[in-house]
Specification:
The protein is α/β, with parallel strands linked by helices. 32% of the residues lie in helices and 14% in strands. The strands form 3 sheets. The chain has an 8-stranded parallel beta sheet. A 3-stranded antiparallel beta sheet has the order 2-1-3, covered by helices on one side. The protein is globular, with a radius of gyration of 21 Å. Bound molecules: acetamide.
Amino acid sequence: MDLGDEGYLLEITEDLIVISANKATGLFYGSQTIRQLLPASIESSSVQQGPWEIATGTIQDSPKFQHRGVMLDVARHFFTVNEVKRYIDFLAYYKMNSLHLGLSNDQGWRIEIKSWPNLATYGGSTEVGGGAGGFYTQEQYTDIVNYAAERFINIIPEIDVPGHTNAALASYAELNCDGKATDLYTGTEVGFSTLCTNKEMTYKFIDDVVRKLAALTPGPYLHMGGDETHATAKEDFLPFVERVQAIVKSHGKTMIGWEEMSQSTLIPGTIIQFWKNAEYAQNAVSQGGKVIMSPAPKVYIDMQYDSTSRLGLHWAAYIEVDDSYDWDPETYAEGIGKEDIIGVEAALWSETLETMDDIEWMTFPRLPGIAEAGWSPSKLRNWDEYKVRLANHEAFFKIMGIDFYRSKTVPWVDKP
Ligand code: ACM
């Protein structure tokens, strides 16, 4: 039986439940399925009355794609270790295996780098709207990494370069071409900042940061951003990307970059994250690269559900729950087929999100459908069938205290 590294076989008879798998990951996913098959009250933090009934039967299950994740932007607004852990719990329940943390942006730098201390202490001291911001110490970051690993989730840290770097440019004057530190920034414009790509100091800075992040991150990937570099001349951007790839490789990691990086020459292994422009993703594929699918009009879960949504943006689309379910990663972008794709990743940018409730309201109920796009064969995915299964997750959302959007597209079981 071909269960691969993440698959499992679950056999439930009247006497016994048996989970079989090649690897511990599969046993973990089998146990998540048992959680989903039992009444949601098993998730309660207080003792509940049974009966704890589960249907008999056999399930053989394994994921379609090796990468199933969410990008959480902790830079525009900062979220605490406990909030990130709660998010990890949600990902685990839906058998996702990657949490990509956006650790730097114009508005904040969120990870302690001891050789460049101002990045966190000054660059991390605010956020969108001017709040207090924050950062993770190296010990706190390691705590997140370990908590995720216990749930078979890999942390992918992102330091976005050369654009989206105002927090670093404000923290260290020497990173600026004119030698003057910028002011901290608490607005929501994009595309105005750039590292000074012609200064050697810039590469020393990146090397120091990458060395530290590589040492703190057991997973194979470091994400180096590369999106929306409108303030960087193209003739500077292309060689910059080559040098950054070499730095990441020299510290033993595989680089992921947003799709714009594919304009440069990619080294073998570099992964490109598609979000908007199929030509960039095709560029990556034509160089032998693999792609993570994050189409903004489907899986940017910071997008509003509709024009009445109290949170979120809508530059890519309004994304109702059925819209975010109803797409196929294998056919979405012209020229990008199943063999080119390592997986699916939702993105939760946090310009408008300040609290854990805000995060949950954007994430739920879209997350389970995106998890399914990463897991299930296309031919088994059908909105009319799925929406009924999704409605049954309401009990889980409620018992977990999840603040979710009560979309009219879903036939909820409980009426409010
Ligand atoms: C992006 O949305 N700027 C990757």
